[in-house]
Amino acid sequence: MAELNKKTVHALAEGLASGSWSAVEIAQDCLDAVKNGDEKVHAFLKVDAEQILAEARESDARRAKGAARSEYDGIPVGIKDNIAVRNATVSCASKLLENVVSPYDATAVANLRAKGFIPFGRLNMDEFAMGSSCENSAFGKTANPRDITRVPGGSSGGSAAAVAADFVPVTLGSDTGGSIRQPAAFCGVVGLKPTYGRVSRYGLVAFASSLDQIGPLSKDVIDSGIILDAISGKDAKDSTCLPLEPSAAAAAALEGAQGRSLAGLTFGMPKEYFSGTLAPGVAKALDGAIEQIKAMGGKIVEVSLPHTKYAVAVYYIIATAEASANLARFDAVRYGKRIDGADLIDTYFKSRGAGFGSEVIRRILLGTYVLSSGYYDAYYLKAQKVRTLIRKDFTEAYKQCDLLLTPVTPAPAFKFGEKSDPLQMYLSDIFTIALNLAGQCGISVPAGMDDATGMPVGIQFLGPELAENRLLKAAAAFEAVRG
Fold it and tell me: Is 179 a catalytic residue?
């Protein structure tokens, strides 16, 4: 039997259809891979092998009766620990919610189940999705499978590492300021951030409600399209979810991979993204990508996103303000970690103080400050106005091009403990944050290796609202030629 955990979703689907392997065999190979390799990587917080195998047996029974829910029935999908799965813990890698069990599935998970996909384990992350390295988990850091002395990125570090280590073929993560794309680049996998509202946020524990979006991390672009098709669509449970039918992203990606052409597409390179210092390996990968795009018939033009320089500051005002409001619900009264104090207020302070990690506390305090009386107009209101200018920058840029080409990160994956200064850590997301503020779509695709560190380097294709099909078609064509 081949090591099925190393195969893509579409390859696994072909084997299931032909009878070359069963859902149980796929699940067992993935479970074996986790058992043999995750002690060093620590991508998973929990894996319920009994439940996974039970669902795999049910999938095989459906297929034997000719009642498979889709061609993907029986394929495992790893789930980030801030996305609710029925009867599984949803701790957000926080001591505060360590033993909280979800009574329902997030809409994205329910949509996967409707296609027969099997939720596989709870993936590690930065606590409450606040971090860029997966060092902020309350339950231990996740390592980059390509070099376990280095970070996998964050906050979806476990999601990226699980795919890169061949534990599972595909995972779900969440992207608030680059939390899918940055770890994808660090680990050498594909990471897709959909348009805000394309995928329901119902069942995603909120960090910053106007920025969060669920998306896939996968071995190739086609798999990202398959998962986007499965999880997207309208949802009455989320008022911000757009009233759209599921996308046809997989077909667009397949067309791109088969056509291997970028003829007729113009790629804009924002000059602000290239004015700073890029690590030599990142610069080399971008130069190679530019030459490849030209060779494939694409056109390169320079564009400007003049308000980019304000993106990090705007993000850390808006995101922390929303986090301050969202995390207020975790009061240890109804559920979660509780430390009894002298009275209710003392209990509240002691429980939150012990339950939240230092980075979460830092962001709650910052968010509370910018929302406080006397500072709201100076910080939060002004940040929202600049956010509008950032969004307009993208709108103007797309009048000159079809997609944007940018770096994902200034440098490859760094070593654990290397960025102890919070500001330096925040700047790791300098090329990803603006897209979330604009609410548009983007994908990180592997584009080479850094000679100095031997670590992967990703490039980023960005597209306007609801341009996922165009985005994935171009990314899949690029990937097919790159090899």
Answer: yes
C-alpha span between 309 and 314 (Å, rounded): 10
**Bond prior to 155 in cis (omega within 30° of 0):** yes
pTM for the whole thing?
0.97
29 shares its domain with 136: yes
Strands of the sheet with 44-46, listed across from one edge? 44-46, 118-123, 76-80, 170-174, 214-218, 190-193, 441-449, 456-463, 403-407, 266-270, 299-303
Task: Say if residue 11 is in the same domain as residue 29.
Answer: yes
Catalytic residue among 94, 133, 155, 224: 155
Same domain, 262 and 241: no
- Per residue in 428-442, pLDDT (tens digit) is 899 999 999 999 999
CATH number, domain of 469, equals: 3.40.190
Mean pLDDT of 287-298: 98
Can 18 be counted among the known catalytic residues? no
Three-class SS state of 445: strand
Q: What b/e string do you get for 64-92 counting C-beta neighbours within 10 Å, with b at 16 or more?
A: eeeebeebbbbbbbbbbbbbbbeebbbbb
Beta-bridge partner residues of 150: 415
Structure-token match 């097919």, residue found: 480
Q: Which residues form the domain of 57? A: 4-256
The catalytic position among 94, 132, 137, 179 is 179
- Spatial distance between the Cα atoms of 13 and 70, rounded to a whole number of angstroms: 9
Alpha-carbon distance of 300 to 306, in angstroms, equals: 19
